[in-house]
Design brief:
disordered N terminus, 547 residues, TIM Barrel, 32% helix, Diaminopimelate Epimerase, Chain A, domain 1
Amino acid sequence: MKHLFNLFVVSFLLISCGSQKVDKLYVNAKIWTGDTSNPSASVIAIKGEKIVYVGDDATKYNANETIDVGGKLLLPGFTDNHTHFLSAGYSLSSVKLKDAMTKQEFIDRIAAFCKSKPDATWVMEGSWDHENWGGELPTKEWIDSVCGEHPVFLSRYDGHMAFANSKALQLAGVDKNTVSPDGGVLVKDKNGDPTGIVKDAAMNLIIKAIPPPTDKQLDQYFDEAAKHAVERGVTNVNDMNSYGGWSDLEAYKRAWKTDRMIVRMYSFVPLATWERLDTFVQKNGRGDDMLHWGGLKGYVDGSLGSTTAWFHQPYLDDPGTNGLFITDTALLRKWVLGADKAGLHIGVHAIGDKANDFILEVYDQAVKINGNRDRRFRVEHAQHVTPQTIDQFAKQGVIASMHPYHLYDDGIWAYKRLDTNRLKGTYAFKSMKEKGVKVTFGSDWPVAPIDPLYGIFSAVTRITGDGKNPNGWYPDEKISVEDALKAYTISNAYASFLETKIGILKEGFDADFTVLESDILTIPQEKIKEVKAVRTVVKGKEVFIRK
């Protein structure tokens, strides 16, 4: 008996000595790695911030903590390729208008919210959609009597049109003598008085009167947005600025210097400030892989919902316009050429087909003038394209930074704006992928929810919010769940210049991953939108566990 006991002790010591010490061992998982050389596994071992093993043999490791995943799906952490992070943080506690389905409901929600807040404070965001009640645009008279002393400035959910009450117009000095600025529209009634609706560059007429948020407020917006993001499995965010870009970056730097940076951040600042960014990068570098900068965001046009996206042909429901370019095209070209020469990373918003064609031509010119290098030009949205445009994306190697959940909303009413031929090129995920275009996915939060499961649901089903397209809106552009996952992980890591750190689960990569409550690779696709993240890990640290 004593001999057997000694043999057991020796065997135990041999096994222990042969096991590698790790901090955490996740076992009993269904792992989608994104790594073609090792596509699936059940065990992942973490030491510090790094992955040291992805496979099926847990006996190799002696862990300080072993976590049983319970057979759930474990994936690389999601990247959201396009957010307005701090304004989204503000919107979490602002008035909710996206699902206000009637004019009266719209008014009542604003009235109730104004009554709940101290008088004279600005009421903003909102994310309303006039298509919910048939397409009539609100006017200041709808809400003037229910707002008290609150100045109100509420964005349509696409962020390219907003609605102001009389108090806000007064504070901004906007009246019947105010003219529409270049790149925008100040809507007026038959008497020449502003209705309260402002589109694109005209929104700045009101924004200039809004007191900028304090550092304390921005820090609060960040904390609330970061918590909201990791609760949805998002571990990396590309932020396209909310409050001018530079104050946003300073807020991220404050979080970066503390323990509050629970999500990775790639901060983009306005393209117009490229010379300032060039100087900043030369002095400060580009940050690290938790917070980095060096990206610039520009605009060609507006949005489809606001009839300001720039098309080759006029709108069906507004034949007097084919949209507009927000930025003077000569100036935009100058900025892109200068910023590219400085080696900065450029992403430009383009929604209409003419806007996409224009920015691709500018990018092509930049390459010819400044020479070949690894620049990773991005088109933000790439929403309405022709087959010829898709060929150009592929030929030029330009990243299509797309936002699939938008089709859930736009597919309800887009037929009013565009003919069938143009609609066929709307959110052309499959056509893009088949031509070899690098497609990345995100939300445009707060325009759409940041939850990647919503985006995956839309990309694979193309179901619209009105329930009228159960088999998919232009279903030929559906993609597989796995392709959608790649767009949210592998491709997004590349678009963030982090492809050697994140995006796949592989030995030597950072331990960024999320665990989902259900296996989205096997459940009915229409159920994907209902799935929740239950655990989120960033650099080996558990930043969220669903209770």
